[in-house]
Design goal:
The complex is a heterodimer of chains A (355) and B (184). Chain A has helices at residues 9-19, 34-42, 45-48, 59-71, 82-97, 124-128, 146-163, 173-177, 218-238, 258-273, 291-297, 314-322, 341-353; strands at 3-8, 24-27, 52-55, 76-80, 102-108, 139-141, 166-172, 179-184, 242-245, 252-255, 278-283, 285-287, 303-308, 328-332. Chain A is of the alpha/beta class. Chain A folds into two domains: 3-189 and 211-238, Rossmann fold, CATH 3.40.50.970; 242-353, Rossmann fold (3-Layer(aba) Sandwich), CATH 3.40.50. Classes of the chains: A alpha/beta (355), B alpha/beta (184).
Chain lengths: 355, 184
């Protein structure tokens, strides 16, 4: 039987990681995600599953430990918040370049700089448009509930190994700190699978396996790039996820992700009560982006309204998807401020209904 | 049923755990629940609040600006949240230390002397359970036995011998809560 518990987002995430058979967690504490390493330490993972949990000396060290563990074909996980994720960008670029699987969790707080410890979505562009250097992509999952956080840990590792690419779970302080009912999946065994790309020692009669992101010849680097691009097209074709609410008769479309999407959903319900036919798309994958459905709905609606806890980052992808068919407006709060449902409704009325 | 509750008071009054206990009670009664704390550098020794939503349906926003029920455990909280109760909603306040009583006429208002009662019961730690009892009397959305079952989940096993005391506190709260203003 599946197990039902009331859990904080951060704790649920780690319980899910243990149950998903993760081999190693390397991280460095930062609010609002320090519960993650606390929970892992308290759970004595070495006894439970043999999972290694290590507090590294810095974020840079942690991501390079991930690089090493991933190079051996292990399931490796790290987590941080904005400032720490920035430090990890070099490592992420290397891991993407070396085509290795790993999962990185960002419990976003307000920025720039050290910013605030309150929730924010201001790392959207960093997550979906690179962040590190070079032509690479992270697969980015955006949970909106504690349950989704649990489910996405499992999914993230599946995708990471399917495409040999880093996957990011982009969450925030609201989901990390809030408690909800969760159904936990059963303990999965840690994998003993040997991957031919993993560096686990040279086998007799086989070539050396080399993990690297360095190509000295431009022809070879271009080949890597072409292979990566082909992989990203596959990801875009297969892995788009979104949730749609009330779109059948929608005259206006709200687009919002993560915790903010739930506040926006409440605003949508309030708008419906006032007689405005509003629907909503909640992207669950931020890369690959659900551009197709938004483009399709742009033929049906009079306007598209994005709500984000930032100064308008995802709205760029929405504008690309809408492609000028109808007006696209944005409303955002930032720096750790959370918009309220009636504030969103007011902004919608001002921008689209007038007066 | 969709009950949106704000609980606020001083840090240390058991504000956050009250919300958790109600939510766990909700889980035991097969409801959807969301608990959201205020978190930040101002929490220690200052004011604390949390939102608890208990619903038959899937819950959308964990962040709200109007509530069905406000449970206010000190004057600053009462001053701050009185106006956020929806018309026709309910406000419960702890009487200890209250100088200015709530004035709204369009909501149900209850008072509870949980602090004094907890001193009489010789254990101020059960203060918040008395308040929970008061709430359950005024808004019987959960069965007491499910709240107790939830408590069994929240409390580490070494504290389980305290569960009967907590149940007694809930029953006491149900007895002592007082109506101050009741809508027809």
């Amino acid at each position: 039987m599946k197990e039902l518990r009331l859990m904080k987002g951060n704790e649920a995430l780690e319980e899910a990681a243990i149950r998903a058979g993760v081999d190693a967690y390397f991280g460095y504490p930062i609010t609002p995600q320090s519960e993650i390493i606390e929970y892992l330490m308290a759970e004595d993972t070495e006894k439970r599953t043999g999972m290694v949990v290590l507090q590294a000396e810095s974020e840079v060290a942690a991501i390079n430990m991930i690089y090493g563990a991933a190079g051996c074909g292990k399931k490796a996980l790290t987590s941080s918040s904005g400032p720490g994720i920035s430090l990890k960008q070099e490592g992420l670029s290397y891991i993407a370049g070396a085509e290795l699987p790993c999962v990185v969790v960002n419990i976003v707080r307000g920025g720039p700089g050290l910013g605030t410890i309150q929730p924010s979505q201001s790392d959207y562009l960093q997550s979906v448009k690179g962040g590190g250097h070079g032509d690479y992509k992270l697969i980015v999952l955006a949970p909106a509930t504690v349950q989704e956080t649990v489910d996405y840990v499992k999914l993230a590792f599946e995708l990471a190994f399917k495409y040999r690419n880093p996957v990011m779970i982009l969450s925030d302080g609201i989901i990390g700190q809030m408690m909800e009912k969760v159904e936990l999946f059963e303990q999965m065994p840690r994998s003993t699978k040997e991957y031919e790309w993993a560096t686990t020692g040279k086998k007799p009669g086989k070539d050396h396996v080399i993990v690297t992101s360095l190509q000295l010849k431009p022809e070879e680097q271009e080949e890597v790039n072409l292979r990566l691009q082909a992989k990203y097209r596959e990801v875009e074709k297969n892995e788009v996820m979104y949730e749609a609410y009330n779109i059948d008769d929608a005259e206006y479309l709200f687009v919002s992700f993560g915790s903010c999407a739930r506040i926006t959903q409440k605003a949508m319900e309030m708008a419906r009560e006032k007689g405005y036919k509003v629907g909503q798309i909640r992207p669950q994958t931020l890369y690959p982006y659900p551009a197709e459905i938004i483009n399709k709905l742009a033929d049906q609606v009079k306007g598209v309204f994005t709500v984000e806890m930032n100064d308008g980052q995802m709205v760029e992808d929405v504008r690309l998807a809408v492609n000028g068919k109808v007006p696209v407006e944005h409303y955002g709060r930032f720096g750790g401020m959370i918009p309220s449902p009636d504030e969103i409704l007011n902004a919608f009325e001002q921008k689209f209904i007038g007066g | 049923m969709n009950e949106e509750i704000i609980i606020a008071g001083f840090g240390g009054q058991g504000v956050l755990s009250m919300g958790q206990i109600l939510c766990y009670g909700g889980v035991m009664q097969n409801k959807e629940v969301t608990w959201m704390p205020s978190y930040g550098p101002e929490m220690r020794g200052g004011t604390a609040n949390c939102t608890a939503i208990i619903s038959d349906e899937k819950i959308s926003s964990p962040v709200l600006n109007a509530y069905d029920t406000a449970i206010m455990l000190n004057q600053p909280s009462l001053d701050k949240f009185e106006e956020t109760v929806k018309p026709g909603g309910m406000l419960i306040y702890e009487t200890n230390g209250i100088i200015r009583k709530p004035e709204r006429k369009d909501i149900d208002i209850y008072s509870i002397g949980a602090y004094d009662e907890s001193i009489k019961m010789k254990n101020t730690k059960i203060f918040n359970m008395i308040v929970i009892g008061g709430f359950l009397k005024a808004r019987p959305i959960l069965d007491v036995e499910n709240v107790i079952k939830g408590l069994e989940k929240v409390l580490p096993e070494r504290y389980h011998h305290l569960i009967p005391l907590n149940e007694e506190a809930i029953r006491k709260g149900m007895e002592i809560i007082k109506v101050e203003n009741k809508l027809k």
